[in-house]
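Worked example

This section walks through a single chain of length 218. The input is the sequence exactly as stored; nothing has been trimmed or padded.
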Amino acid sequence: MELEKTADGSYTLYVPEMDEHYHSVKGALTESQHIFIDKGLKHSSVLHPRILEIGLGTGLNCFLTLLAAEGTGRKVHYTGIERYPLPEETILKLDYPSIIGLGHEEDYAAIHRSPWGQDAALTPWFTLHKIAGDFTQYKFEKGYDIVYFDAFAPEKQPEMWDQKLFDSLYECLNNGGILTTYCAKGVVRRMLQSSGFVVERLAGPPGGKREILRATKQ
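Given that input, the structure is written out below as tokens.
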């Protein structure tokens, strides 16, 4: 695993074995903020949303959500599932708080140090529940308002982009719930539609992908 600086000055991780990055090299922070916060969290009208992230990874999406929750006074319950947790020394090298959350260094560390399998109140506005597990085998409870779908690309992890799995995410969302993902491939859009979602193609992040997807459960 290699640390790599992206175009907006934030870091991502490169996995040589997969020839894949955790985030866009055109801007890790820019990508996450646009897709999951601006087009996901901020688009939801739920006062106290329950969020599910598929692929906790570096914790960047989680950290951005924690900061947004505090900034708006909007309480968030955040569940993240991760099959391959990263070691703490790798996490600290990413140093996201120095770019986007000065004064929140302990909050970022707490995302990765908090216990698995139980709720952890990291701030008055943000509660985290981490699941150490395989998304393709896990049965989620119902009642989520937002899904951040941030698995590795379909050509790298095809088992994560499966019709039955999108069906299960549709079922675990409340009516009006939304799913956002960076992948705008036609096959993914059609699977989401087959699950019952109404799917929008939205402009991608500045300097990054041309389009992203947002799917809504009617």
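What to look for: The helical segments are 28-38, 60-72, 88-94, 97-100, 105-113, 163-172, 186-195.
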